[in-house]
Input
Amino acid sequence: MRKMGSGDNHDYFDRDMEFAIGNRIVINILILFMLFTSLCIYLDLPILRQILAYIYLTFLPGFTILFLFYKRFNLLNLLLFSIGLSISFVMIIGFLIDYFFYVINVSSSLTLEYLVISFNLIISLMIFASVCAKSTKKFVIIYKKIKLNDISTIIISTLFPAMAFLGINLLRNFDNNLLIYLLIILIVAYILLLGLFDNNLSDQTYAYIIFSMSISILLLVFFRTNYVYASDSIEEFYLFNKILESEHYFEFRNLHRNLGLCLSITILPTIYCILIGLKPVIIFKLTYLVPLSLTPVICYMLARKLIPYRYSFISSIFFISQSQFLFQNLAFRTYLSVFFFSLAFLLFNSKTNLIKKKSIFLILLFSGIVSHYSNTIIIFIVFLILFIVFFLINYLYKNDKPVMINNVDKDFKISSYSVVLYFCLI
Output
């Protein structure tokens, strides 16, 4: 583990740190985790099955893809893109599995055996491809050095989801919402303290604070009742249940105002429910909890390219405070597509191989399209505007050097403006 130059202009940043781990160790961990999780699922071991299967679906496939493509990765981006690509993997591969068995006239394609065997086979192939493709012996993770005030801040932020979980149980079992009120007051007070005082925190600490606050708020909204909320979510839940009971998807693709075309509310929760083994109503909410909680983190990371860290933090809190964020459970498919499109915009700021960047970008873009059809129109408008902006900038700056606008690379500025434009249009 060694230090490397940061290249950031702000004094509060420490030098970046590198953690190098051998490729063989990573591969062994991936294989052992995959096999142990599969064993827990087949044996239906309580708690272990639920926890490991959720990590298996939400993190493992995406991390394997990044491990195949890259030799080094920033810690925050690694977590975000692993989750985004994993959800994409579950939707797309789940659809292909169902279509394959539909073609060969197998009526029950979305079953535990078929899904686990198919997922393990594809992940194993990606691991084998990474063994063949790796030119270096180590995988490097870049992160910010953790200081004492970072640790104390992380510990305090971790209390928010715990308080939300306890508060929901108190409300549902004893009709007592005192802990929920206390949690909201503490979050507001904590935001004021962080906004008013310079705590010299790292980017990854601010990202964790934002995630803790957003997931705590969504826990309060999603799980305060055993039922599904009104609006589109009722039809989404009904369609999900139909596919879960029939164990196949393809025949339901044109039902309910084309809702069947949205893989985010059909294939995705069905696979989560089959592998995790919880009640459908819990799975239907749990599936979207983490990705929807990460959207404000993506907003923060995009804003960091334009404005100081404190204002970036406030902008993400402003996003969390909107009614659209608080009531994402009214239409899960809409906001999951927002997550995918926002994550795709974040790729513009990464300095990686162009072919790899385009490949991941297309996966995320396609995932956003199959998550919600209407958002595709908005994305088309955003890209059309971006095309015009790029054309004008290339016309104005005909030299080959990167154009710096207020000490910010023009690509950074355009990608950040594009996501702001996208949320305005939403």
About this structure: The first strand starts at residue 2 and ends at 4. Confidence is low (pLDDT under 50) at residues 1-13, 402-409.
